[in-house]
Amino acid sequence: MTVLGLTGGIGSGKSTVAALFAARGVAVIDADQIAREVTAPGTPGHEAVAEAFPEAVSDGVLDRSRLAQIVFADHAAKALLESIVHPLVYAESARRAAGHELVLHDVPLIVEKGLAERYDAVIVVGASHETRRRRLIQRGMDEADIEARIATQATDEQRRAIADYWIDNDGDLPELDRAVESVFERVSGAV
Description:
alpha/beta, 5-stranded parallel beta sheet, two-stranded antiparallel ribbon, globular
């Protein structure tokens, strides 16, 4: 099995790149999606997060926006949340990867958590700060929240240092698709 890591800053277009790899038959494992699943109501993850962050629970449901405000403003709170959620995400990711020849893990925090060594190759999606801001504003985020989240993430220089492949996403979708195809040809040849 060839295991790839995909990362990039918020608003870089990581999800679009993951979808383009999936369209080529690559098994894509989305850490953010799994994190939502393992903390869904009725799960042990939900119970643990709700116990640790009762101020982020409303009518028995995690208010993910409120939780994000808490953890992006407090490093200790972020570390606590990650200590609860990350082991659950890792276990579920391993289960989903089993049996596939080529697996792409969509993991926002590869650089920040020092996870590059877990992958046969790391693919980084990059976009300029302005492009990322524009995309996030279009998603409805306010500028203060955008800057706060970007500030907690690795820099492009840090991402480039661990990148085996860099995909620039400041252009249009056809350009991005060509870049993904180029990387796909190289990584699928290694399988």
